[in-house]
Amino acid sequence: MSSSPSSDYEPMFTRPGEASVAPRHLIPPQGSLPATARQIVEDETILDGNARLNLATFVSTWMDDDAKQVYTSSFDKNMIDKDEYPQTAAIEDNCWHMLANLWNAPDASGAIGTSTVGSSEACMLGGLAFKRRWQQARRAAGKDTSTPNLVMSSAVQVCWEKFCNYFDVEPRYVPISEEHKTLDGHDLATYVDENTIGVVAIMGVTYTGMYEPVAAIAAALDEIQKDTGLDIPIHVDGASGAMIAPFLQPDLVWDFRLERVHSISTSGHKYGLVYPGLGWVVWREEKWLPEDLVFKVSYLGGEMPTFALNFSRPGAQVLLQYYLFLRLGFEGYRAVQQESQDVAKYLSAGIAGLDAFELWNDGSDIPVFAWRLKDGHTKNWTLYHLQDRLRMRGWLVPAYPMPADLEQITVQRIVVRNGLSMDLAADLLDAITAEVAHLDALTAPMPSDHPDSAFHH
Length: 457
Hints:
The protein is α/β, with parallel strands linked by helices. Helix content is 33%, strand content 14%. The chain contains ten helices and 13 strands.
């Protein structure tokens, strides 16, 4: 006997779709009620972790209710369609000019910038500008252009490895060490040469949250230029720190105040405080973005310039960034970032107070810090075991090896973002304290099933 057609009057979880296993790899032959499809999606995603308790990610996991209204009212805007949405295009222009001023461009009206899907795309655009300018200069001098290289720390985010792989650039990694915890200009002359298209400086290393001293890197490159004549520019990967330093460390010189800094990128969806899907890149002066990288395209009745790896992409996140600039202002951003740093330093002080650990850094740069087990503290457990114990309580606090030449050191890291309140932080510190006590009470070693970290940068 065939079942009757599904209706809204049937009890939940007895309707077709809810009373069966949803297809995994094939589109179902028939549709279902909207409520049924929504219920299946919601049921499957409740298995995900709580985003607010994810202390591995730098990406925003909370926005206020008014921001959500801005978001839902602009889901359908396509950022690339500037002819159809000219005001959204104007708002994008407003935002990167605001960032050019925030980052102390000598003349923001003479700068150039764009939004991107994230800071990885922004980094690749900065790298492409470096490569193209280098190629043009080499060709003009009648020199070979086949072997460009890019110099960076061994602790760079994977997007720079991708850039070098995708765009045929040799990566030259300057190793970090216990003595030189970041790229700081030390021994830089041994890594750069006439084929170096630029140097990447990181404001907020993803492994630890530490700033690389951009002014020291620039000074080292100044000395190299005096000795060799090589004029090598800097791109600042400010995925996190470019939206922290202007508010919390305004006297720190890292940005366009340094003439050698040609471009800066950041993630609007990290400490820009916007939901996922937004990055920014700004060039100090328009001349540093080669004109032949900018396309004039005809689209939906108009002609527009575009410099991007993506084409159609959401306009909503750009509007969210503008909303936050208006909503918070400079002082509001300063207050939010200061609270995050206060929470980070509260947690790092609490963790430093436990006999098991020593800090790698304390969150004084961006609100991110890392720690490791003290040598000789225990042979019964590792930071991977603590990671697993915290995950059982709902907290995601990753453990992972440091980059090349320090891979024998395992650290654990906390990223404090807007939404991790001091009250929640106190609960986290209590959880860490309790789990360390549990692990310290073991009388035999825990099984070792973590040859590699499940966490990747």
